[in-house]
Amino acid sequence: MATRTQVRRSVPPVVRARWAMWAFVLVNLVIVEVLFITSGTGKNSILTVAKFVGLHAALLMIFQLLLVARLPWLDRRIGMDRLTVWHRWTGFTLLWTVLTHATLVVLGYATLDDASMGRTFLALAGVPASLLGMIAAATVSAIAITSLRSVRRKLRYETWHALHLMVYLAISVAFVHQLLETTTFKSSTFATVYWWALWILAVGSLVTGRIAVPLWRNARHRFRVQAVVPESDNVASVYVTGRDLDRLPARAGQFFIWRFPGHNHWWLANPFSLSAAPDGRSLRLTAKAVGTASAGLRHVPVGTRVFMEGPYGAFTSLQRTRPGTLLIAGGVGITPIRALLEERSTADVVVLYRVRDERDAVLLGEVRQLIGAGRLHLLTGRTKDGARPFEPDSLREMVPDIAERDVYVCGPPAMTSSVLSSLRAIGVPRSQVHAEKFSMA
Predict the structure, then answer these.
(1) Strand pairing partners for 411?
(2) Going by C-beta distance under 8 Å and a sequence separation of 6 or more, which residues neighbour residue 216?
(3) What gap in Å lies between CA 378 and CA 326, rounded to an integer?
(4) Cα–Cα distance measured from residue 440 to residue 270, given in angstroms and rounded to the nearest whole number
(5) CB-based contact 14:77 (threshold 8 Å)
(6) Predicted local distance difference test score (pLDDT) of residue 422
(7) Widest CA span in the chain
(8) How many C-beta atoms lie closer than 10 Å to residue 227's C-beta?
(9) What is the mean pLDDT of the chain?
(10) Single pTM value for the model
(11) Residue whose C-alpha is closest to residue 205's, from 195, 194, 197
(12) Which of 102, 176, 265, 366 is the most exposed place for a label (fewest CB within 10 A)?
């Protein structure tokens, strides 16, 4: 439980995590610049620039691996949604860096040999180190094309995810390419130790966070469905039990990636927030039927084995900076909000719950019971009919001291964006706003 002293931190956890991450990036950038300066020039000025760009492409690949490794310290402070956005932009930066490096290499050797670009390209393709670099560049380009929003919308998530896994192939091939390029990897003893250490850190973090920890955690806890409770016509809660759940490092507001292998295909996975604070005996998710996997949850047999990855997310009381709290939920986004209500340490809490109709307000009874002396505003009506409760003036009217509170927002992307825009207009400090986008991408 957070106390009044605890919530008045001078530096919020998310800020400290960002400082640590940027310090890591800047330190390694400085080291790469020093290695470039001390390792000598290329055979001509163009190849020297190509070498400079290639070094930074390697650093970007390592940073990409760390972003997707789901490091608990970063994830619990920054959140997977923000890390995913950074991963996306780092990926497109990597694409242009790799293509620039490849183009400069071909141009540099073409200038050196006084040959055409096409002829030089074919000649380099016969060199193993260069061929591996070309394969890596082509793979990165293919992944980037499928990640364009216009292309991504036309693909099923499972198809896109399978294609996206080729990034590991691209990075593996690029690593071997780097090994064979002695001017990059073996220019000095320090350079060799540095690059090996950095790659081992990145790959080790990825294997630990994405494979080893989930396998170990599921083998230890043996998660199984304990009960399935329909909450409405299209919403159901699933209770999951297991061994030693009091040792599971989960907090109210976090989510897991859930798989039900005995009921759905292994590759069907969904991110669902905990809809109740972990109590050491069971975990609960509450989901609306919007897809094949979520629609079938109400039919999952009791006793079904569950495979879970997580917990993930920074949407927790760890982020609190002020004594008062405003919790804003839209639709089934009430699930982590309801869990946070169990963990609150003060009666000074206000909940805004946005639904089209009161019949759509799942878990409303539980929210009313948990809020106690706090205030609940059930906001109904359709936006197209004029219901706009998240305009700045409306928010000020419902919560006059909104700028003095921590604000937690969870709901559909459009609603979340609208609320965040209004909070900026009102002048709520960014450090007091904590939002979780109700989607993975």
Answers:
(1) 437
(2) none
(3) 14
(4) 9
(5) yes
(6) 95
(7) 81
(8) 12
(9) 88
(10) 0.84
(11) 197
(12) 265
Distance, in Å, from the CA atom of 316 to the CA atom of 349, rounded to the nearest integer, reads 15
Query: For residue 127, how many C-alpha atoms fall within 13 Å in the half-sphere facing its CB?
Result: 15
Nearest to 239 by CA among 225, 251, 256, 259: 225
Least confident of 32-41, 79-88, 123-132, 256-265: 256-265
User: What is the Cα–Cα distance from 327 to 344, expressed in whole angstroms?
Assistant: 11
Residues of the chain by 3-state class (helix, strand, coil), percent to 5:
55, 15, 25
Residue type (1 letter), 368? R
387, 381 in Cβ contact below 8 A?
Answer: yes
In this prediction, residue 298 has a pLDDT band, given cuts at 50, 70 and 90, of: confident
Q: With b meaning 16 or more CB within 10 Å and e meaning fewer, what string describes 275-300?
A: bbbbeeeebbbbbbbeeebbeebbeb
pLDDT digits (tens, 9 = 90+) for 306-316: 999 999 999 99
Q: What residues pair up with 257 in beta bridges, in sequence order?
A: 271, 309
Mean pLDDT of 145-170: 82
Instruction: Report whether pLDDT(151) > 60.
Output: yes
Token couple for 227: 């009960």
Tell me whether strands 433-437 and 405-411 are parallel, antiparallel or unpaired: parallel
Task: Report pLDDT digits (tens) over 339-362.
Answer: 999 987 667 899 999 998 888 899
Within 10 A of 26 (CB to CB), how many other CB atoms are there?
10
Q: Strand runs (DSSP E) across 167-302, as ranges?
A: 224-230, 235-241, 255-259, 270-273, 282-288
